[in-house]
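Saturday, quiet lab. Running sequence design on the structure tokens for the scaffold JK sent over.
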């Protein structure tokens, strides 16, 4: 069994990718379990096999503890951690080949609180990986791209498990724009040139140094373009995942 946590900024396409990648895997005769870890979601593009909303209810937390929506989500994240054993049993009873875990819209709930890494480590002892989504439209500006690079490095630093990086919703960009972003991810010089050309002043200086810092750390964030709408890139994505999961590569892909 492999467990894959899908993480990314709000609206980056986590739930849609969970839906379409699980369908794609099912077509190649894999037993897939989709887990929804987002307690606040109202509608999902797939039917979760395991759903955290069965363990916590945001509305009643808001009422009972007089919390706003964000306070309730934070409380919910801690309550989910308390239920991780039961969630894990639910998953294991289904005996899947692959488990796709759709994480909360508010990325910091899962990535930057203690409960996320705890859930990831307690959910299973089987091989696991993180898939980090770079929203293609958002990442077209070098400033946004570098910010996202930092977020993904921060996620890696929290979980320390193999990470695959995707350029999500790539069908929304002309191919040459998607290729440009992929080039930035493969070649530090290409990113530096874009920063020089498109940014000015302090933003240019900081972005250049931030990008530098990531490369200095030796982190590689090669992006694979993917579309949950057209299924473009699914084969490469699956190959990258298998590689980090089966070879136990320590590093990011
Ligand atoms: N064109 C296109 N749209 C997409 C794709 N993936 C997601 N979307 C759209 O982007 C929006 C957000 O997608 P979601 O899958 O809900 O994103 P998410 O990261 O789960 O969002 P939150 O959980 O709310 O943070 C929806 O309107 C999707 O239809 C894609 O590959 N192509
Ligand atoms: Mg979602």
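Result came back. Writing it out in full:
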């Amino acid at each position: 069994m492999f467990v894959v946590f899908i993480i990314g900024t709000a609206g980056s396409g986590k739930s849609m990718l969970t839906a379409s990648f699980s369908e794609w895997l099912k077509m190649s005769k894999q037993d897939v379990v989709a887990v929804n870890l987002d307690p606040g979601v109202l509608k999902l593009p797939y039917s979760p096999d395991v759903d955290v909303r069965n363990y916590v209810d945001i509305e009643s937390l808001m009422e009972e503890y007089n919390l706003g929506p964000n306070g309730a989500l934070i409380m919910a994240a801690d309550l989910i951690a308390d239920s991780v054993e039961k969630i894990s049993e639910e998953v294991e009873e289904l005996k899947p080949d692959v488990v796709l875990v759709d994480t909360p819209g508010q990325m910091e709930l899962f990535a930057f609180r203690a409960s996320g890494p705890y859930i990831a480590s307690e959910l299973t002892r089987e091989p696991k990986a993180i898939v980090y989504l770079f929203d293609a439209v958002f990442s077209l500006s070098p400033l946004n791209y570098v910010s996202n690079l930092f977020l993904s490095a921060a996620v890696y630093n929290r979980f320390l498990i193999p990470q695959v990086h995707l350029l999500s919703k790539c069908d929304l960009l002309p191919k040459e724009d998607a290729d440009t972003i992929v080039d930035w991810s493969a070649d530090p010089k290409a990113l530096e040139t874009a920063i020089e050309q498109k940014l000015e002043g302090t933003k240019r200086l900081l972005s250049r140094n931030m990008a530098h810092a990531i490369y200095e750390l030796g982190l590689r964030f090669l992006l694979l373009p993917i579309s949950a709408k057209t299924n473009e890139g699914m084969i490469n994505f699956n190959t990258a995942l298998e590689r980090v999961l089966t070879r136990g590569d320590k590093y990011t892909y």
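Notes for JK: The pocket of guanosine-5'-triphosphate (ligand 1) is lined by residues 8, 10-16, 38, 105, 168-169, 171-172, 227-229 (CB under 6 Å). Residues 142-159 form the longest helix (18 residues). Ask whether to fix the surface positions before the next round.
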